[in-house]
Design goal:
Largest sheet: none
Shape: globular
Number of strands: 0
Number of domains: 2
Structural class: mainly alpha
Radius of gyration: 19 Å
Length: about 240
């Protein structure tokens, strides 16, 4: 077993090791970004934020039985950067387009029409907004709950089953204004109530508290680019 693969496995379950591992691999992340984009980036660029999130996701989802961590991480980083550029291109083209354009059944990519309409309405008001701006803005909200944007890499669901469970919790909160207000006022997740109403395991809710709150904040606020990463939570028609 390669040392770097072992480190990735250990970092996935240890916050301190994870932080150190990310710091150690900054050059690797930048190198992957260069190979994907054919241009140099730095830590002030939007692309860096995307690449960093992708690397964090790779650490959390890496399966050592499937090969080299570096190969896997580079694939994830490349994929996320390409998705980012496609999304940015779509945003730029939609700013001057009326939402009525999307009222037909035609769809030019995998993004649901209702989400494209919502994104268009928000982006049209802020054409110079970037994903870095959104991260900085949402991070201020996360700090009120005593965690940061980059803590999400440590608490994001790995399996599809856990992902669906978190989706159930978020949708339940979105559908219940009283509970949403309680969360905003107390800065706590009412785990007991959510558990009772959804039958979700208490341990799961506790372990993914930050992720659930983050999804709630992103989907409830003006964060159209970040909302793309949470689009799987959206119900039809929302």
């Amino acid at each position: 077993m390669r040392t770097i693969d072992e480190k990735a496995v250990l970092a996935a379950n240890d916050d301190l090791l994870f932080s150190d591992f990310v710091q150690e691999q900054k050059y690797f992340i930048l190198s992957c970004s260069y190979r994907a984009l054919k241009k140099y980036i730095n830590e002030n660029d939007d692309e860096w934020s995307i690449a960093l999130m992708a690397f964090s996701s790779a650490v959390k989802s890496y399966d050592i039985e499937k090969g080299s961590f570096f190969s896997y991480a580079e694939m994830i980083i490349k994929q996320k950067l390409i998705d980012f550029y496609r999304t940015t291109k779509k945003f730029n083209s939609e700013v001057s387009v009326s939402p009525s354009v999307f009222e037909s059944n035609y769809d030019d990519d995998e993004t649901p029409v209702e989400i494209k309409i919502e994104i268009n309405e928000k982006i049209a008001k802020q054409t110079d907004y970037t994903i870095t701006d959104e991260i900085e803005a949402i991070n201020k909200e996360f700090l009120k709950f005593r965690f940061t944007f980059y803590d999400l890499a440590n608490c994001s669901p790995k399996s599809q089953k856990t992902k669906e469970a978190c989706k159930t919790a978020v949708l339940f909160i979105l559908d219940n204004p009283i509970i949403r207000n309680e969360i905003y006022q107390t800065k706590q997740l009412p785990i007991k109530i959510i558990q009772k109403k959804t039958d979700l395991p208490r341990k799961l809710l506790e372990n993914h508290r930050k992720y659930i709150i983050a999804a709630l904040e992103i989907l409830s606020g003006e964060y159209p680019m970040l909302a793309q990463y949470m689009s799987f939570i959206r119900k039809d028609g929302i």
